[in-house]
């Protein structure tokens, strides 16, 4: 017999505790613990059929993955080439960011190629989904709609319409009859995901599940939810801006940290084939504190504009603000500029921003951030046709970065005339074929000479 016990779960990260806590020890959130009933099943595990015997890895047969193209190149790029049958894919993002819009547009492309898709919504009625589908042009006889939150009924619907792709919007609204907890609780979310994983593998159906996110930007519910699925996609972007980024943070069938760039319009999401041009549009000309860097996102090079503003502080403690880049990294680079380049920044406020609202984690932007800060402090601008690449060490040295040729070619394609790179990445033989001027530097002081 199953025994019930009371357990407290953090609604932000899914941390489990035997008693209520004011602050979650895992995610440090306050007043997020809720009490739930959990059934503990005691007994032996019954194995049906023969026991699987250990097999040498050299004798294991590997079957080729069957991929289905979504006809949306940016989405295919993030997925690693298309949808893998039998996979479980989690799509997360802020409310209104465009998750349902993207999936509905994907349904249109798949149904046009006679791929049967079942769209299950626990939040909207079938008529509401059709209204959105008509606006996006996603109306087809191969697209089936179900407005239900019972996973038991959904499993029957998959068999009845013989769907090849299942979309569940959202995971927090689904429930199974075996669990007494309300939909959206940690226990229900965990059980529903487990059942969907079994459905995907048993029926060879590709399953997309939409997950709500917390205020930190991670998927709400237990952290094990991300470990159970095959692929985790995050939709990012400023709600006031038009562009959206679809980022893969986990992918068992492709590369991670791959991104797809979209632009939100009245007719839905449009693919952006040249992200560098979009992020550099409206860039000021020859303004101190504005620098262009070349970064790698997944397998593509993207040019971004870094803006810095340094001004005198009116308070005892100078203010530091970083948007789109790690605050601690900016503080580290300012310390290097003070110690190694002799810039007196201690009494100045400093604001650093990545134009366009994108989040940048690539350390190759260090030199660009440092030159933007130094340029604003000295009121000297970096030439508008110059692209900056390089990582900075604590000794003030410029360290090498990966894929430097790909970064330089992207700058050359966008019309830049000069590219400053680390000396350790410089190869005279490789640079001969380039039309762009390549200037190697080995220290921060040497790089500061590019300021006009």
In short:
The protein has 452 residues and is of the alpha/beta class.
Overview of the molecule:
The chain is globular. It has helices at 73-79, 99-112, 126-136, 151-161, 186-203, 224-228, 275-280, 327-341, 366-378, 404-413, 428-431, 444-447, and strands at residues 2-10, 16-17, 33-41, 67-68, 83-84, 88-93, 117-121, 143-147, 165-169, 206-211, 231-236, 243-251, 259-265, 268-271, 290-297, 300-312, 320-323, 348-354, 386-388, 391-392, 398-399, 418-422, 437-441. The strands form five sheets. A nine-stranded mixed sheet has the order 8-7-9-10-6-11-12-13-14, with helices on both faces. A seven-stranded mixed sheet has the order 17-18-16-15-19-22-23. A three-stranded antiparallel sheet has the order 2-1-3, with no helix packed on it. α8 (327-341) crosses α9 (366-378). The longest helix has 18 residues, at 186-203. The chain has 452 residues and is α/β, with parallel strands linked by helices. The chain is built from twelve helices and 23 strands. The model has no long low-confidence stretch (mean pLDDT 86).
């Amino acid at each position: 017999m199953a025994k019930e016990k009371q357990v407290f779960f953090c609604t932000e990260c899914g941390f489990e505790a035997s008693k209520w806590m004011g602050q979650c020890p895992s995610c440090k959130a306050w007043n997020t613990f809720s009490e739930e009933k959990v059934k503990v099943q005691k007994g032996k595990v019954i194995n049906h059929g023969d026991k699987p015997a250990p097999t040498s890895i050299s004798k294991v047969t590997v079957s080729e993955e069957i991929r289905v193209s979504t006809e949306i190149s940016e989405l295919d790029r993030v997925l690693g080439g298309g949808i893998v049958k039998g996979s479980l894919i989690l799509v997360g993002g802020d409310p209104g960011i465009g998750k349902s819009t993207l999936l509905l547009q994907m349904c249109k492309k798949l149904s046009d190629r006679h791929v049967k898709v079942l769209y299950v919504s626990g939040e909207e009625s079938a008529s509401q989904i059709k209204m959105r589908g008509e606006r996006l042009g996603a109306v087809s006889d191969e697209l089936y709609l179900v407005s239900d939150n019972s996973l038991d009924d959904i499993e029957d619907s998959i068999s009845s319409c013989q769907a090849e792709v299942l979309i569940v919007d959202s995971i927090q609204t689904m429930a199974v009859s075996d669990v007494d907890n309300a939909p959206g609780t940690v226990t229900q979310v965990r059980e529903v995901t487990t059942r969907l994983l079994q459905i995907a593998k048993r029926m060879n159906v590709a399953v997309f599940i939409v997950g709500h996110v917390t205020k930190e930007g991670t998927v709400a519910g237990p952290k094990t939810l991300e470990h159970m699925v095959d692929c985790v996609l995050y939709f990012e972007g400023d709600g006031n801006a038009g562009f959206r980024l679809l980022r893969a943070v986990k992918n068992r069938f492709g590369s991670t940290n791959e991104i797809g760039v979209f632009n939100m319009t009245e007719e839905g999401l449009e693919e952006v084939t040249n992200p560098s041009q979009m992020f550099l549009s409206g860039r000021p000309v020859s303004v101190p504190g504005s620098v262009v860097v070349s970064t790698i996102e997944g397998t593509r090079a993207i040019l971004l504009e870094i803006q810095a503003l340094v001004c005198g502080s009116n308070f005892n403690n100078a203010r530091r603000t970083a948007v789109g880049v790690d605050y601690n990294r900016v503080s580290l680079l300012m310390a290097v500029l003070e110690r190694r380049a002799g810039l007196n920044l201690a009494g100045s406020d400093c604001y650093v921003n990545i134009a366009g609202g994108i989040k940048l984690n690539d350390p190759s932007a260090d030199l660009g951030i440092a030159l933007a800060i130094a340029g604003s402090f000295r009121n000297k601008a970096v030439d508008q046709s110059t692209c900056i690449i390089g990582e900075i060490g604590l000794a003030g040295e410029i360290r090498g970065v990966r894929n430097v040729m790909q970064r330089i070619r992207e700058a050359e394609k966008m019309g830049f005339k000069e590219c400053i790179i680390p000396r350790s990445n410089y190869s005279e033989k490789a640079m001969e074929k380039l039309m762009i001027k390549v200037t190697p530097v080995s220290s921060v002081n040497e790089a500061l000479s590019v300021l006009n």
